[in-house]
Write a structure and sequence with these properties.
The protein has no helices and 11 strands. By secondary structure, it is mainly β. The strands form 2 sheets. Strands 2, 4, 5, 6, 9, 10 and 11 form a 7-stranded mixed sheet that branches. Strands 1-3-8-7 form a 4-stranded antiparallel sheet, with no helix packed on it.
């Protein structure tokens, strides 16, 4: 079955960087999308970034554009979220999710994603 395993979370100071990883396994689909989402206590889950397993398209939420970068290593079937210049508002549990089929519509909407990882916590505090 589909498995998504996130790693790389932790506690850092404002202005720091972190790299989150999402190892995907258990499927052989030719084309799919991977999204990174986050959720803070009392807030709705927010789509942060999305990428497909082929091609060059990426999508970002306005709140992270220019600070976060989503990428992939197809050989390892692993997806990454590089987060720079972190601030306390970035504190959340971060999840990766897989969409298949991937339509290209609503790519930062959690309704488009079918499989979810367990999440990794990121805490940004002085």
């Amino acid at each position: 079955q589909v498995q998504l395993v996130e790693s790389g979370g932790g506690e850092v100071q404002p202005g720091s960087s972190l790299r989150l990883s999402c190892a995907a396994s258990g499927f052989t689909w030719d084309f799919y999308g991977i999204g990174w989402f986050r959720q803070s206590p009392g807030k709705a889950r927010e789509g942060v970034a999305s990428i497909t397993n082929r091609g060059s398209s990426t999508w970002y939420a306005d709140s992270v554009e220019g600070r976060f970068t989503i990428s992939r290593d197809n050989a390892k079937n692993t997806f990454y979220l590089d987060m720079n210049n972190l601030n306390p508002e970035d504190t959340a549990v971060y999840y990766c999710a897989l969409a298949h089929p991937f339509t290209g519509w609503g790519v930062l909407s959690d309704a488009q994603y079918d499989y979810w990882g367990q999440g990794t916590r990121v805490t940004v505090s002085p």
